[in-house]
From TrEMBL:
<protein>
    <recommendedName>
        <fullName>Proteinase inhibitor I42 chagasin domain-containing protein</fullName>
    </recommendedName>
</protein>
<feature type="signal peptide">
    <location>
        <begin position="1"/>
        <end position="21"/>
    </location>
</feature>
<keyword id="KW-0732">Signal</keyword>
Amino acid sequence: MKRWMTMMTIILIFGIAAACAKPADKSLPASAPPQAYGMVGEQRIPFILGSYHWNNTIADAPPPYKLVNSETSAVELVGDELLIEFEAESKPERVAAYTWENKTAAPAAVSGNRLLLPREPGTYIYEVVGTWPQGDARYAFAIRR
């Protein structure tokens, strides 16, 4: 009888604890920034996530010219404009882009989430920076004309 009462008390305690437990809040921010990609017409260009500061998490990555191998990962493009897309419910507050040449970054022409692409033939390495209330993230990709 004593064993049965002890067992029932334990079950009751676990039952109360489970009933009082707070359900997972799906609106909580993710622990990492959203994935990103570019669109030129119907062509999707994947971006590589680089360094970021997101919800008190800091991740450091090499610079874009080391993240992408421009010889093998550059995407052949036809088009003058790349649409920057993020796989997130909320859009970034700010988007910036840079071109990398000879280990040096230079600002690229961005209007909203549209990146103007060069018309001259060559391989180009880009860095895209998105800023949200949760933090910021850097992405890299390469294109070839």
